[in-house]
Design a protein that fits this description.
heterodimer, A: 1021 residues, Barwin-like endoglucanases, six-stranded mixed barrel, 39 strands, B: 478 residues, Formate dehydrogenase/DMSO reductase fold, 69% helix
Chain lengths: 1021, 478
């Protein structure tokens, strides 16, 4: 085919010379840039810009500074199971001081950062406490011992083993004593047994700083079993507590609080709940939650128990109770117990054998055995023997003990006669400490073989017989520490490493490696079907016990009670800044102990509740004398404490070497403990107190006790609630005047409808016991700063969730209510519109969010917050500002070690920036992304806030209120319509958190009386 | 000298026999001479205070707002109290210069210069507080709506704090312009009298080439009127907007619609008191009693008793509304924790100083007593400081949830910061008194013709004439 030629123009067709010239020359016009010099160019502007661009770029490249990479994740080869940014979870157990809480450890990039309850455990069902939540911080405690030492100087494990081995061999038959607190681990006990078997006459002495030996001995004499039974508060319609703080500190409060909460959940469809009577000397957390509460002197503890036994039909003659209110209360409690035979329970916090025998007799009489008390699967929470300890101390002083190996106890601090113990320890040939810090006892031991932290170690724990929980390392040991079991195995001559020993033991028990793998995954082993509850036949010497109680000496003018604080307990976790700064549920005070006294007693020291008392953090210091000992402590007025009682918390007054947070905080109250021949008494019957004239700061986070009759807290009695469930929320009817929907009708502005997710929270005031687990859980989750005593006293604490505690009624027998208070995520938030820079704003899911980078710290938002939940970073708590040397850190929270606990998902806030609850937005985001990846809508319960997850009572429910299947939706719209209310709803700030009114199971107050009381409080309506 | 037909109501605005030259001498010669010992003492005390204030501010910025005793409940204390107090003080200057100019009140010429200077310095002091009180003062520029690369992130136009930024900066700008434009002819006078080259140069620059031509005077008058027109609404708006910081919030005791007029009246009240304090000292030290007369003081005392009573009315209205409004939270704030309670003492200081004591000015004798006026001016300023303290702190310290109730005492850096602003104020004022004509020279000359002894002298001719002759002359005037 012929190639056709197309021409583009006449020039091409004719192909003139001129055209050929043009074709040769590609550019038909002269480019001025090439033809002329730069400076002479006719259009230098363009070139100028070219040169400018080039030089700027060149200068920028030349001058660009290197960005130093400070830290990187040091993986050359990434471990298969670790993805940066994705958390790994390992099952473990918290078993400090005999408390048993199976946990799940959240680790990020190999660092444990948070403990959650293990929901597979049928005992705790995922509950935790403040102590459990705080325990992860103790892993990174800067005061932990970092290496083995001999006589104070560092050594190697080989050298230590050699010397200890030689010393043990050279004892010449003198007994070896392993002194420990309650050991829940059966395999550790086996290792201890094998070790002690090597040495003749050796023994294992179990000593609990806060002892339950009286109970153990009473059960031995009553039932022939030296055990603590398992309690089943969930089966009890009536509970009588005789000084037992089972919601706060008694035995295993995490377990009991959860059980008890089940009996306190109530709605209009099922208006029933348990009734709790509490007889006590000081105001405990349990007393604060009691429906009926009576106070007595500690010397009357036995008499009260006897009177109760007599009242339930026991054949004893009870001494007369002088206080008519208490006497009536006993009759009332007894009546309730008898009416609920088989559904009732009496627990006592006394460490007196005789009192516990009487309590056993009462429980026997009311049919508690086998229904609310289970002897078939008893608990192992405390195993200490006070008499053994006392004998050990006298043996040591007599020089008849060859070696003392101290494991997890600190008698040089918490034994009542610490001097005697220290003197005895000096007479022992070989003293070894396995303790993890240079505490008072470890200081006295020549050989220090520090144990791992429990998050670094293999372990098992048998909380209840047949119910096991396990521990596995969640991080390589941070220091040159060694598991105590490894030390003992080595010294026994067993070369099996503890990890293998434990594994072999369980592989054998479970019948194979698969079983063991599953155990490590689940973290627990429990009977396939829960064994039936079993009672025990009671054969206690009631008459003998009664006689001893009746002959007990009467108290003096003042009496002294020692108690454990919910956060600090016996003092083992004293060097934990989170727990030190956790406000005590009752006193709301932080950092230290104080002398709790009644308002009546305070008046004798010319101070009393009132404005002056409230506005001055400095309280008068009292010199308290008893049993020949004296200490000085600031007083603190606690409504509801018996007028003749002074209550002091143990666990404070630690040596400086214990750590920076614990050292020098408070005063040691253990010297007031006494030994009555059988057990320790945690009270004295004759004390005196005098004002010294000095004053000391008590750093409280709440100074005003009353809610002034304001409808921020709503409560009613069970009787009235049954009669008219709507009455408690009567004032909400006022809002109906605006129209059917207050949200829309109470404003002139348009309403945003929140399509998609809308987060909401419900808090049940009836099941919130005020324990504070949520506060610490939030602190761990959200990197909330610790500020120290002085700053707390200035009102600068940072907690995102606080638990407001209000007293009502008279100050001798007040009623208490706890109200968790956190950012309410108002949909019409007053904080948002006042921020000049828009640093706080609203998300499309109803979250009131903070842009920390944008915040300039005008504090207007905090002023305008009706709930006062916003927290300014008053100082440089974290070293996160650009000023040198202005760090304010009183508790080593900024050590590189301690900072490992920080949650990498949550930014650390710099000084001058406002912060507050975020509804754990990082968790919500994670849950949403997971749902998105899985390709389904977000499921209810997939996103949990830290406070919600920590709450053992399930008082906090959180979720998407647009999801009609969610629990939060059902609570608000179906189950709790009558009890549900919003705090300060009438201000139309539209909070996202609803509260459920508190119901007290007490006799309804006569209507007229209630109304006058209300008028008096509210002044005006 | 007394005239036959002398008004007992309209007293002369300038006392003594003055001619134009004498006025110039009286007012400019202090600028040309060396200051007295008292000036040095006062100036260095002020400088020392300023230094201490600067140190207090450094301390606070370095270590954080935590060195102040504010807390989770009470986010504003002395800082914002002082801010509102200083802003309020500024108001008298603007009122005198702008509103009285528009109302053709001749007496203003004796006091307007110093009052305007006071306004400028007071607003400078006031401006320190909202900036320094920030947690991150180095990020303070975030409050300006400038184009940026952050998204852009914009300021929140809903926030009264942002309105403050605009209100205060506008106010400062207009006041400064007004003050400076008034100073031009006076600077020119100083320049023209200057005997040293440096003075001639500096005042020459400051005078912007003023020649005193008719055109200059015409433009000057026109500018004065325009600025007066601009400044007049500012007198009302600035403190109205400051009051919005509180009025638009939800806190009982803040959330009150009465605040704008109440704040404006209070501002004028405290401003006039401050003018009195300053002028009583100034006229004494610079011997200007003939220009700043008892008549001036009386006029201002009348304003004080009026605005004091307005403020008193507002206090009572607030109490009434707290009861009548039937809001239990507001009721408690006013009756339990403001008029009583741990901070109740501050409320009664406020009531005594602002409402009760100014009532002495119903008596002419008191209004014309220099001593009483001076003491009262101090009392009023104390009272007005406490008013702001009462509004801010007694509302915050006991608000909705009793669990957060708190108390507040200032720490040393807070007190130091406040003292520092006094240092700043008086340092500026001393420099002003030394280097600027403290009385509006040009303006006071304009009233000389109708006031003072020399005016009377001119009248003598007519006084000596018989009434008949006067009537006859008038009747037959051509």
């Amino acid at each position: 085919m012929e190639q056709k030629k197309y021409w583009k123009g006449l020039e091409e067709l004719h192909n003139t010379d001129a055209h050929q010239e043009i074709v040769k020359n590609e550019f038909s016009e002269e480019l001025p840039f090439e033809s002329e010099g730069l400076l002479n160019a006719t259009t230098p502007r363009r070139d100028f810009l070219k040169y400018l661009g080039f030089t700027t770029a060149a200068a920028a490249i030349a001058a660009s500074c290197e960005t130093p990479v400070k830290k990187a994740i040091p993986y050359v080869n990434k471990p298969e199971e670790i993805t940066p940014g994705v958390a790994n979870y390992y099952a473990s157990s918290y078993a400090i001081d005999g408390e048993y809480v199976p946990v799940v450890v959240k680790t990020r990039e190999g660092r444990p950062i948070k403990l959650e309850g293990n929901t597979l455990s049928s005992i705790t069902q995922g509950s935790t406490s403040a102590k459990v939540q705080g325990a992860v911080l103790s892993l990174y405690d800067t005061a932990r011992l970092r290496f083995p030492s001999i006589a104070g100087s560092e050594t190697t494990w080989a050298e230590l083993d050699k010397q200890v081995g030689a010393a043990l061999a050279g004892l010449g038959g003198a007994p070896v004593v392993l002194l420990s607190s309650t050991v829940l681990s059966p395999t550790t006990k086996k290792v201890i047994g094998e070790f002690l078997a090597k040495y003749p006459n050796s023994r294992h002495v179990v000593y609990d700083a806060v002892s339950y030996a009286g109970m153990l001995q009473a059960n031995e004499s009553s039932y022939g079993k030296r055990v603590i039974p398992s309690y089943h508060f969930e089966n009890a319609k009536v509970v009588v507590g005789l000084g037992a703080d089972f919601l706060g500190t008694w035995l295993n409060p995490v377990e009991y609080a959860r059980q008890f909460a089940q009996t306190r959940k109530i709605n209009a469809q099922k208006p029933e709940m348990s009734k709790l009577f509490q007889f006590e000397s000081t105001m405990s957390l349990t007393g604060a939650n009691a429906d009926e509460r009576y106070t007595h002197r500690p010397s009357e503890t036995g008499a009260i128990a006897l009177a109760l036994l007599a009242a339930v039909g026991g054949s004893v003659t009870a001494p007369a109770i002088a206080d008519k209110r208490v006497a009536d209360g006993i009759q009332k409690a007894a009546k309730a117990l008898k009416e609920n035979n088989g559904k009732a329970l009496v627990v006592s916090g006394s460490n007196d054998v005789n009192v516990q025998i009487i309590v056993n007799a009462i429980n026997n009489a009311i049919g508690a055995n086998g229904t609310t008390i289970d002897f078939a699967s008893p608990s192992n929470y405390r195993q200490g023997s006070d008499a053994d300890m006392a004998k050990l101390v006298s043996d040591m002083n007599a020089g008849s003990i060859g070696a003392v190996l101290v494991y997890g106890v600190n008698p040089a601090y918490d034994y009542f006669d610490a001097k005697q113990f220290a003197a005895g320890l000096g007479k022992v040939k070989l003293a070894v400490s396995f303790n993890e810090r240079a505490d008072e006892t470890t200081e006295l031991c020549k050989y220090v073989a520090p144990d791992h932290h429990f998050l670094e170690a293999w372990n098992d724990a048998e909380g209840r017989t047949g119910y096991y929980s396990f521990g596995q390392p969640t991080i390589l040991p941070l220091f040159k520490t060694r598991a105590i079991q490894d030390s003992l195995l080595t010294w026994t001559g067993n070369t099996t490493p503890w990890a293998d020993y434990l594994k072999n033991e369980w592989v054998a028990k479970l019948g194979g490696q698969e079983g063991w793998d599953k155990v490590l995954q689940d973290g627990i082993v429990e009977p396939a079907t829960a064994p039936a509850l079993g009672g025990a036949s009671f054969s206690g010497d009631v008459a003998g016990a009664a006689a001893k109680i009746n002959s007990a000496k009467k108290g003096g003018k003042l009496e002294l009670v020692l108690y454990e604080k919910v956060a600090i307990g016996s003092g083992k976790l004293a060097n934990n800044p989170w727990l030190q700064e956790m406000p005590d549920p009752i006193t709301r005070a932080t950092w230290g102990n104080y002398a709790c006294i009644s308002n009546k007693l305070a008046k004798t020291f010319s101070t009393q509740l009132g404005d002056d008392y409230e506005i001055n953090a400095e309280k008068k210091v009292l010199k308290i004398k008893s049993n020949g000992k004296e200490i000085e402590l600031p007083l603190l007025i606690v409504p509801g404490i018996h007028p003749d009682v002074i209550a002091i918390a143990v666990g404070y007054g630690r040596s400086e070497k214990t750590g920076r947070a614990a050292g020098g905080v408070g005063v040691n109250a253990y010297p007031f403990v006494s030994f009555n021949g059988q057990t320790f008494d945690y009270f004295t019957t004759d004390a005196s107190a005098d004002a010294t004239g000095a004053k000391e700061i008590v750093a409280s986070t709440q100074t005003h006790n009353s809610y002034e009759g304001r409808p921020i807290v709503k409560e009613t009695t069970l009787e009235e609630f049954i009669k008219n469930p709507k009455e408690v929320n009567e004032d909400r009817l006022e809002l109906k005047k605006f129209g059917p929907d207050f949200r829309k009708d109470g404003t002139l502005y348009p309403n945003y409808s929140y399509p998609g997710i809308k987060w909401g929270m419900s808090i049940d005031l009836n099941t919130c016991f005020g324990c504070g687990a949520c506060t610490i859980a939030c602190q761990a989750e959200n990197n909330v700063s610790v500020v120290g005593r002085e700053e707390v006293a200035k009102g600068h604490e940072m907690h995102w969730i606080r638990i407001d505690r209000y007293f009502s009624g008279d100050d001798e027998n007040p009623e208490v209510v706890f109200q968790p208070m956190l950012c309410q995520h108002c949909d019409n938030a007053p904080c948002e519109n006042v921020c000049p820079v828009g640093a706080t704003n609203h998300s499309s899911e109803g979250i009131n969010q903070m842009a920390y980078n944008r915040c300039i710290g005008t504090r207007y938002c905090a002023n305008n917050c009706p709930y006062k939940v916003r927290r300014l970073n008053w100082r440089d708590w974290n070293g996160a500002d650009s000023f040198e040397n202005n760090l304010y850190d009183v508790a080593d929270m900024n050590d590189n070690l301690t900072r490992m606990v920080l949650n990498p998902d949550v930014v650390v806030r710099s000084r001058g920036v406002m912060e507050k609850c975020s509804f754990c937005v990082q968790r919500l985001q994670e849950a949403k992304l997971d749902a998105k990846k899985a390709g389904h809508p977000l499921k209810d319960g997939a996103a949990k806030t830290a406070c919600q997850q920590a709450c053992g009572a399930d008082a906090i429910v959180f979720g998407n209120i647009n999801d009609k299947n969610s629990e939060i939706y059902k609570i608000r719209n179906e189950q709790q319509v009558d009890r549900m209310y919003y705090v300060l709803e009438e201000t139309h700030v539209l909070p996202s958190i609803s509260y459920l009114a508190k119901i007290r199971n007490k006799d309804a107050a006569p209507k007229a009386e209630k109304e006058t009381a209300h008028k008096e409080e509210a002044h005006h309506a | 000298m007394h005239l036959k037909y002398e008004s007992t109501l309209r007293e002369p605005l300038v006392d003594g026999v003055k001619d134009y030259h004498q006025v110039t001498e009286d007012i400019i010669s202090p600028i040309e001479g060396k200051p007295g010992t008292l000036w040095y003492v006062g100036f260095f005390i002020s400088l020392a205070l300023l230094g201490f204030g600067a140190f207090s501010v450094f301390w606070q910025i370095y270590f954080g707002v935590g060195v102040w005793n504010l807390n989770k409940t009470i986010g504003w204390g002395w800082d914002i109290t002082n801010f509102v107090w200083w802003v309020g003080i500024g108001h008298a200057g603007t009122l005198i210069s702008a509103i009285l100019l528009l109302f053709r009140q001749g007496w203003r010429t004796g006091v307007n210069r110093a009052a305007e200077a006071m306004t400028i310095f007071a607003v400078m002091c006031a401006g320190q507080f909202p900036i320094i009180h920030m947690g991150r003062v180095w990020m303070a520029f975030f409050i300006l709506p400038y184009p940026n690369t952050r998204g852009p992130v914009w300021v929140n136009f809903n926030s009264p704090l942002l309105w403050d930024v605009f209100a205060i900066s506008t106010y400062f700008t207009v006041s400064l312009l007004f003050w400076y434009s008034g100073l031009l002819p006076d600077f020119a006078s100083v320049r023209d009298r200057a005997k040293t080259k440096l003075r001639k140069l500096l005042y020459g620059i400051a005078a912007f080439g003023w020649t005193g031509s008719t055109k200059h005077w015409q433009r000057h008058e026109a500018l004065s009127l325009v600025l007066a027109g601009l400044a007049t609404p500012l007198v009302l708006s600035v403190h109205t907007i400051v009051s919005f910081d509180f009025a638009t919030s939800v806190i009982p005791g803040w959330h009150t619609t009465i605040f704008p007029p109440y704040f404006v009246a209070g501002a004028i009240f405290s401003g006039f008191a401050m003018v009195q304090t300053l002028l009583i000292i100034t006229r004494k030290i610079l011997k200007l009693e003939e220009y700043i007369t008892l008549g001036h003081m009386e006029a201002m005392n009348k304003v004080i008793v009026l605005t004091g009573s307005v403020v008193g009315c507002a206090y009572l209205t607030e109490l009434f509304m707290a009861w009548y409004g039937a809001n239990p939270y507001e009721f408690a704030t006013f009756f339990k924790y403001r008029a009583a309670g741990p901070l109740g003492w501050s409320y009664w200081i406020m009531m005594t100083c602002n409402v009760i004591t100014p009532q002495v000015f119903w008596f002419r004798k008191m209004r014309r007593s220099v001593a009483v006026t001076f003491v009262m001016s101090i009392i009023v300023n104390i009272g007005m400081w406490f008013e702001r303290f009462v509004i801010i702190c007694t509302s915050l310290y006991r608000d909705y949830l009793p669990s957060s109730w708190s108390y507040y005492r200032p720490s040393w850096p807070e007190v130091g910061f406040y003292m520092g602003t006094f240092g700043l104020f008086f340092t500026c004022y001393f420099l002003f008194a030394k280097y600027f004509p403290v009385i509006a020279l040009a303006e006071i000359k304009s009233i000389l013709k109708t006031s003072g002894e020399n005016f009377k002298e001119k009248m003598v001719v007519y006084e000596e004439e018989s009434a008949e002759k006067f009537a006859h002359d008038v009747a037959h005037a051509h």
